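DUF3078 domain-containing protein (Salegentibacter chungangensis), 298 aa
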Amino acid sequence: MKKIITCLALLLVSVSLTAQEEEGKEEQKQGWTNKGNIALLFNQSAFNAEWRGGGTSNIAGNLLLNYDFNYLKDDFTWDNKIIVDYGLTKQNGDKFYRKTNDRLELNSIAGKQIKETNWYYSMFLNFRTQITKGYEYGEDEMGETIRTERTHFLSPGYLQIGPGMLWKKNENFYVNIAPATSKLVFVDSDFTSMPGYTDGDYFGVDEGESLRYEIGTSISAYAKFDIVKNVNMENILNLYSNYLEDPQNVDIDYTMNMNMKINDYLSTNLIFQAIYDDNAVSGFQVREVFGLGFNYGF
């Protein structure tokens, strides 16, 4: 499964390279440029009491904020991206709203161009966490739904930083390779201090600790391009290998966001994300969101 996702991500990036051949001729403006997009997606299903086909009434919503603020001055480039992705769902009869997604991420890459080439000496930073509490759900002796807090803001939180080499066609297509990346995993020590806790159970952090340090190689790629008129695809791929422990177990985080524009304010969005991190769970974490949304670009 991991090989399939990796090949899929690399295929999408390679397809984007072809698409970028023409788009890459457009040069980024000098100084600061900024742009962003806010999308609010809705999904809803309803069934009356007489419906016999099966199903449960539910409503779901997802807020996506994608904001870029980039700087270019001669041979110096600095690209920054903020991503906020938050979703909730509520089924008829459920006691609680449940999260479908919760993501807060900052990506920043600065580069100094090597003469007149597409290569740059670079320094990158990636920070990820979530906004609100996350829960595990179960039932008590009476069959009532209960929930147990499992995560919250900065638990976990991930910070990667390191020097490397950046290959950049333009602000919509680049690849960064950082072979000396420091990675910090932040957690609340309350989760690692519970009775019976075993080292590494909670996002790889040792018992009683609130921080895990790793050093390894990070490869990140970004590609955004138009498939056809009014349909664009954004791909974000992050790979990381920890030198200190199981370097063969490569962490994968791939996100695809496809926007199909209806008009200036309405669009259909498809979001697909696949994560592999054996310190979090032994298997792939996969999510998919599809819906009609209100869209605003700025």
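The chain has one domain: 2-297. Residues 2-23 form the longest helix (22 residues). ok done for today
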